Write a sequence for this structure.
C-alpha cells in the first residue's frame, strides 16, 4: 500500500449581514486562478482555529471574527504540494473550514497571491466558487444561517 504525504490548511467561510441579507466573502487566488475562501497552511503546532485566524488576517486583513455554531468542515483531495519537502509532489490536502461572522466591511488583499475579493449573496457566491466541494460547504453554512434566522423569527412572535 502506498501512503501519500499530507498537507493541512485552515480557513473560514466568512459572512457579514447587510440588513436582512447575508453576504459571503470570496477571494481570487491569482496563483491558482480560482475563487474560494480564505485559507492557508497550518504552521508547526498551531491549532486549526489559530491558523484560520492568522491566514484570514494575512490574506484579507479581517481581525474581528466570531466563530459560529462549532461549524467545522474538512475537504480532503489530491493536490500538488507547494511547500518545502512536498513541493511539486503529489499529496493529500486537508482543508479545514470554520464559519465566521464579521461586522468589518473593509477587506485588504495583498495583490500578489490574492488579487481580488467580493462580498456576494449566497447564490452569486455559489455560482462564482471554482470547486463543487466548496459550493457544498457554502450550502451547509448557509443552511445553518437560515435555520438560525428562522429560530430568531420564531422566537419573536
Amino acid at each position: 500500500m502506498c501512503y501519500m504525504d499530507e498537507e493541512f490548511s485552515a480557513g473560514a467561510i466568512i459572512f457579514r449581514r447587510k440588513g436582512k441579507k447575508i453576504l459571503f466573502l470570496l477571494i481570487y487566488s491569482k496563483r491558482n486562478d480560482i475563487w474560494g475562501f480564505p485559507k492557508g497552511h497550518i504552521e508547526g503546532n498551531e491549532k486549526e482555529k489559530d491558523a484560520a485566524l492568522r491566514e484570514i488576517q494575512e490574506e484579507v486583513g479581517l481581525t474581528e471574527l466570531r466563530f459560529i455554531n462549532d461549524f467545522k468542515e474538512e475537504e480532503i483531495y489530491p493536490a500538488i504540494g507547494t511547500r518545502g519537502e512536498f513541493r511539486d509532489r503529489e499529496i493529500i490536502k486537508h482543508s479545514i473550514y470554520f464559519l465566521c461572522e464579521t461586522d468589518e466591511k473593509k477587506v485588504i488583499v495583498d495583490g500578489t497571491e490574492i488579487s481580488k475579493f467580493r462580498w456576494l449573496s449566497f447564490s452569486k457566491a455559489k455560482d462564482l466558487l471554482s470547486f463543487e466541494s466548496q459550493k457544498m460547504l457554502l450550502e451547509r453554512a448557509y443552511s445553518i444561517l437560515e435555520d438560525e434566522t428562522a429560530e430568531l423569527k420564531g422566537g419573536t412572535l
Summary: Helices lie at 48-60, 122-128, 132-155. The radius of gyration is 16 Å.
